[in-house]
């Protein structure tokens, strides 16, 4: 399988294409298993998509939302991914928050336990299977809070870990690990802007350890990009 690229004209079209993928994954998950688990990225790019998600889905019933990463800040801090997502979504969906205000190691362990308790796991590795990871990419090739050359990229035996010395502020974060992103039924990257063209081309051409976003697996992995991020 190869990573699929869908190029869209501008931010509105990117959001519409992303919504189509998300709604499809949610409907299929609910039809097959009675519940849909999505993990969401922070950052600016997916905001427009989140703002339209409630309308596109019609109902939050049986939809559980998770975070693939969080910044180590309180939930009312302007940098909080929870704050951004909660405001963009509106309403009251089931939103599993990472405690950015807590000790990061404790917050990671608590979130890992919550995931194990709520999400069905693979038989072999016992990894919780998220139906769709909605991800972003940084210009350096990071995804979630997995940064190039950082030790968290190599962790295979945990689901969620603290991150220190992040090159993207704030420096302390909490992130899902690669095995969790890889165990998902699908992955959707939302990318806009010419500064993402390098990592997008690496993601499409195959894995490269210097670009953690290219290590998440290519099966059911879709990139929705504007022409600049697609290198056009
Ligand atoms: C975070 C993110 C991070 C983000 C990318 C892209 O908490 O910072 O989850 O991985 O998705 O850095 O961010 P933008 O969409 O703002 O470019």
Structure in words:
Helix 2 links the parallel strand 2 and strand 3 (63-67). The chain is globular. The mean pLDDT is 97. The protein has 232 residues and is α/β, with parallel strands linked by helices. It is built from six helices and ten strands; from the N terminus they run E-H-E-H-E-E-H-E-H-E-E-E-H-E-H-E. The strands form two sheets. It has a seven-stranded parallel beta sheet with strand order 1-10-9-6-2-3-5, with helices on one face. Bound molecules: 6-phosphogluconic acid. 6-phosphogluconic acid binds at residues 41-45, 69, 71, 81, 136-138, 142-144, 168. Residues 41-45, 69, 71, 81, 136-138, 142-144, 168 line the site of 6-phosphogluconic acid.
* Overall average residue pLDDT: 97
With helices defined by DSSP (H or I, 4 residues minimum), what is the helix count? 6
Oligomer: single chain
Structural class: alpha/beta
How many individual β-strands?
10
Which consecutive residue ranges, at least 5 long each, have pLDDT under 50?
A: none
Secondary-structure element order, as H and E? EHEHEEHEHEEEHEHE
Strand order of the largest sheet: 1-10-9-6-2-3-5
Ligand catalogue:
6-phosphogluconic acid
Q: What's the main sheet like?
A: 7 strands, parallel
- Rg over CA atoms, rounded to whole Å, is 16 Å
Q: What distance lies between the first and last C-alpha atoms, to the nearest angstrom?
A: 23 Å
Helix proportion of residues, in percent? 25-40%
Q: Please report which band the strand proportion falls in: under 5%, 5-15%, 15-25%, 25-35%, 35-45% or over 45%.
A: 15-25%
Envelope shape: globular
